[in-house]
Amino acid sequence: MATFLYKLGRLAFRRRHLVALFWVALLAVAGIGAAGAPAAGSTSFSIPGTEAQKAFDLLEQRFPGSSADGATARVVFKAPANEKMTDPDNRAAVQQTVKELSGGPEVASVADPYQAKSVSRNGTTAYASVSYTSSGMELADSTREDLREAAADARDTGLTVEVGGDALTTTPETGATEVIGIAVAAVVLIITFGSLLAAGLPLLTALIGVGTGVATITALASTLELGSTTSTLAMMIGLAVGIDYALFIVSRYRAELAEGRDREEAVGRAVGTAGSAVVFAGLTVVIALVGLAVVNIPMLTKMGVAAAGTVAVAVLIALTMVPALLGYVGRRVKPAGEKSRLLGGGRAARKAASGAERPNAGTRWARFVVRRPVTVLLLGVVGLGAAAIPTSALELGLPDDGSQPTSTTQRRAYDLVSEGFGPGFNGPLTVVVDAEASDDPKGAVAAVTGDVKGLDDIAAVTPAKYNRAGDTAIITVVPSSEPSSAATENLVHGIRGTGEDVKSSTGAEVLVTGSTAMNIDVSQKLDDALVPYLTLVVGLAFLLLIVVFRSILVPLKAALGFLLSVLAALGAVVAVFQWGWLSGLMGVEQTGPVMSMMPIFMVGVVFGLAMDYEVFLVTRMREAHVHGEEPSQAVVTGFRHGARVVTAAAVIMMAVFAGFIGSSESMVKMIGFGLATAVFFDAFVVRMAIVPAVLALLGKRAWWLPGWLDRALPDVDVEGEGLRAAADGSGEGPDADDDRELVRT
């Protein structure tokens, strides 16, 4: 591996014009494709294997043209003080609004509140339900504008009018904090390298990689039904790993220069050693993201695969584009320890001449940990354990209009409905009775209706609506409690329980669907998939790390440390988004259940990112140990060379992720906060404290591997031992003979 990457790095250095042209051309092609691609189409949230999805599919068959999965809107009207919605003027205004909405090209139906009996008992509130033929993300902008204009016209009559539902779903905005995150990354790189030019290389290559990945996703969005969140996630992860991977290679390049190697040889060795770590770190991230397919939720699978593709591009750019750019900048990138004149160049040389150079912070910290491993280990584990305590109160759910900020019309419509009709009207359940196999379909439906009315937490049950064949009926059930409550979840399970009795007696099948039931099914599906997913991803990565480190205990320690950091990060998410701690600082206007996919998503992404730091830091320790150092000294050596860079990489990744906390989309906001917190815990507590403490306690046992397994595993040579052996034999790199015949540019 190291020898191959060494040759690749030197080739990219020598053929820098071709490499740069290739990546710029690829970015241009992707950009042209994105600019000419049609707008993203359907992003339907289908959940194969769930009862709610099965009911949706059945409705499409038995009630053709009903647009069961189409967008919906609820236009809520409230009368002025001391007036009723049944007053002639107010009634005329509502009916005029219904008439305006009915003329839209994508409108399937509009329910008049006075005919549908959707006027509150006190007469102050009414709502009109609008169904569309297209999904929320497919609706034309003109259709959304018609909806807004109809509501505005009704407001002009003196009514309070708000609009809820998914018809107003729009692409989330990330806000200015995303740019701030990139700016912080730039500052950290400048401090780390002491050079504006060296700092600019990782940023430039990361932006090229992310631009290529996101443009490709945009170009394929319509064809593959990729939502806006997919490109946001790819940008988030692609920026973070793209900067980090380039950072490690540039840092190793400067270290090789400091040892006196010429620039081409330094590039080859940097790509051969740090590049090997980049490859395996990238593989762990790709495994974790692609592994999301295990959950069998198409949207989540597409998000994972798209983000994995962006990570793969980041790896390839780090291995090829970074060496090419280093060839262009030449001597303007200084060896390690030297700064540009603008940032105080010459100080390192003066210190070296005077003998005043002292151990860096990483060396001093590693020596402290090696002297006090038990104390550091206990403090790290206890601290993360305390941060993880809120996880015990974790409540999962999917966001609805009730979780929107109070400044949105969706949230105000939700509150008006709750006040006028009761909280359950915001999440009615659709009970579908498939009586095709029953001898008495109407009798079966009547039995279901009677059983449902006898359940607790029922506010209303509407009469059954039959299809043309008379073998399928829809019953709308309104709970007494709000959609995200445990009582509503119990009601869904209760209806399904009565359905089992009805099926055994009449042969009719009872299915519960609707957005509330779908959310419950999604949460259950994600819970069921967590253990298999964790087993698959951690298992594959564990095997990969055994190959990298040629050890059993080091990968095991890496996996256990990851579990600590992800639990602590989930605890922080619960504290902020569910309990409301620091919610004002984070811009969280409404607390509530944590998004259902958050635990499994964090497990996947954080595991991949956590292994980045494990690979980068511990491979340097492994390299020192392979070259003859004692285990404790190898830990110190690894920190001397890697702690500064790993710290910079972690701060950069945290800044990039934290930048997405400013998003208007609650899902993106929560993911950004969770990932930034997880990187903090994993990099600074687990990798910087717990890992060296454990390795110091284990000593030589940390690198133990059974002989039979050592012989069976492939030798990937991440440490660059093959490069050192070749250099010791000839004084030059492994392809020195071939290089002598080449004219260096």
The tally of strands reads: 11
Cα shape: elongated
Helix content: 55-70%
Spatial extent as radius of gyration: 30 Å
- What is the percentage of strand-forming residues? 5-15%
Could you walk me through the main structural features you see in this protein, from its secondary elements to its overall organization?
By secondary structure, the chain is of the alpha+beta class. The strands form 3 sheets. Strands 6, 7, 8, 9 and 10 form a 5-stranded antiparallel beta sheet that branches. Strands 2-3-1-4 form a 4-stranded antiparallel beta sheet, sandwiched between helices.
Features:
745 residues, alpha+beta, 5-stranded antiparallel β-sheet, 4-stranded antiparallel β-sheet, 25 helices, disordered C terminus
Topology:
Layout: H1 2-14, H2 16-36, H3 51-62, E1 72-78, H4 88-102, E2 107-110, E3 125-132, H5 141-155, E4 160-164, H6 177-193, H7 196-224, H8 228-258, H9 263-290, H10 298-329, H11 347-354, H12 361-371, H13 373-388, E5 396-397, H14 409-420, E6 429-434, H15 441-453, E7 458-461, E8 465-466, E9 472-479, H16 486-506, E10 509-513, H17 515-549, H18 553-578, H19 583-586, E11 594-595, H20 598-626, H21 631-658, H22 666-698, H23 707-712, H24 721-730, H25 736-740
Parallel strand pairs: 5-11
Antiparallel strand pairs: 1-3, 1-4, 2-3, 6-9, 6-10, 7-9, 8-9
